[in-house]
Amino acid sequence: MTNEFVYHVVKPPAALADFVESFWRLENTFEEDKEIVVVPDGRVDLFISRSAKQGFHITLAGVESEPDCVAFEAQTVIFAVSFKLLAIEYVIQQPIADFLNRVIFLPDDFWGFNAGDLSDFDAFCSKAGKRILDILSQTKVDPRKRQLFDAIYSSQGDRSVQDLSEQIQWGERQINRYFQSQFGISLKSYCTILRFRASFPHIKEGKLSPEQNFTDQAHFIREIKRFSGVTPKELLKNVNDRFIQFSTLPRK
User: Fold this and answer.
1) Of the four, 116, 125, 202, 218, which is 20 to 30 A from 193 by CA?
2) Cβ contact 190:42 at 8 Å
3) Domain assignment of residue 72, given as a range
4) Are residues 15 and 118 in the same domain?
5) Do 34 and 104 have their domain in common?
6) What whole-number distance in Å separates Cα of residue 111 and Cα of residue 119?
């Protein structure tokens, strides 16, 4: 019996690097549904999927700030675009604040996708990349926002709001209003998610002490439990491979 996730990821071309983290393909080859806990990684994902129960469908997942227990259906195929937050305003072009920790269904012909696109991952990446470039060619990106997200991601969230505000000369209140209205979360909370994401691979390697900017061990444990539902020790055990962070899955 085949029992595994097959995961393949492709980095975007340089022209999309500020907006797209990756294109990826995930297939559940389990012969039965797999119960998993998806933990936050700070991305916004566009999924085109096919499963036995739901057929072909396209969804957009907002920012996750808590663990999500789901039944990953057997024989499901997912092609996805993982967006950085700058893409919400300039590529998706609609706020996602109303679906924090939620997934919304999009039209089945969104961006011209169809069920046939799930037969060729390379063609999907090319089609999605071209569509994103076409959208970006018709808009002008605020350089201040580009600088803000570059600082956030390069530090893996290990910067204070005050520090970021001073660096880019944009007021803290204005930044937080922007985050709340666009993404449904504060900048501080988002940075905490990125610190958790950076910690997740360390925990998988058996490193149970904070390597990011947590106040102390107790703070580290609280934050890990907040985003995964369990302590670092339990997360390390990961019984039956239940806990999944898509951005840290092994590539096959």
Assistant:
1) 125
2) yes
3) 5-139
4) yes
5) yes
6) 17
